[in-house]
Specification:
There is one protein chain. The protein contains 7 helices and 4 strands. The protein has 224 residues and is mainly alpha-helical. A two-stranded antiparallel sheet has the order 1-2. Strands 3-4 form a two-stranded parallel ribbon. The longest helix is centred in the N-terminal third of the chain and has 23 residues, at 2-24. The N and C termini lie far apart (86 Å). The model is unreliable at 17-28 (pLDDT under 50).
């Protein structure tokens, strides 16, 4: 009887021993290649690129942005053609109506404008110019503050108002009538010694387009 029990125990131990040994064996480490190395780039190039689903909303959004973008046309028309637009101004009305018509043209249904308010008086710049007349004529680059009343001052004293709040403004009370009021200091216009724009190489443009389509983890996508 004891021999039978011993044989059974020995058989079970012989069956379980390889599994226990395998469980204690550390997993083999995967070989990792340095990032941006020739071997890593070759390995990435060999991996098949999955075919994107044309009905995937993300794929469709990327396709619209990369191939049929209207961002620059929209920005140019609102900024260069219509121009500045304060609340309630005629330019705001033009921008609202143009935006509504564009969205309808692109397929938006029931595009319309919603009224809101009341807001108050609107303000629009019709004409403005300023220049130094003595001791010599110097044209000034200036712009009236929104909602400033219309004035005609052919020759007046210039006053700089550096008030920080309404309480600080009280010290100028009664001293500004008929004067030209400046509310900001002169801006420093620095000389440009470097080009404002930078042209990307064909290699960088191709890489940016590839990253925008497939995604490049750990890299920034250059917007242009």
């Amino acid at each position: 009887m004891h021999r039978r029990y011993a044989a059974v125990i020995l058989l079970m131990f012989s069956l379980l021993a390889p599994s226990a040994t395998f469980a204690r064996r550390p997993a083999a480490k995967r070989a990792t290649l340095p990032a941006n190395s020739p071997a890593a780039n070759a390995q990435a190039a060999q991996q098949p690129t999955p075919t994107p689903d044309p009905n995937d909303p993300i794929v469709r959004i990327k396709d619209e942005g990369m191939n049929r973008s209207q961002v620059m046309n929209t920005l140019s028309y609102l900024s260069d053609v219509i121009g500045p637009r304060l609340t309630g101004s005629p330019n705001m009305k033009r921008a609202n109506e143009w935006t509504r018509d564009q969205l309808i043209k692109w397929g938006l249904q029931n595009g319309h404008l919603e009224s809101w308010g009341p807001f108050g008086r609107s303000w629009e710049l019709k004409e403005f110019s300023a220049q130094v007349i003595a001791p010599q004529a110097i044209p000034l680059i200036a712009y009236p503050k929104a909602w400033s009343p219309g004035v005609n001052i052919p020759n007046g004293e210039v006053v700089y108002v550096d008030a920080k709040d309404e309480t600080d403004l009280q010290r100028f009370k009664g001293n500004l009538r008929g004067k030209i009021v400046l509310t900001n200091l002169m801006r420093e216009v620095k000389a440009h010694f470097d080009a404002l724009g930078k042209r990307l190489s064909e290699k960088r443009i191709a890489r940016a387009c590839r990253c925008a389509r497939t995604g490049c983890p750990g890299r920034r996508v250059v917007a242009f």
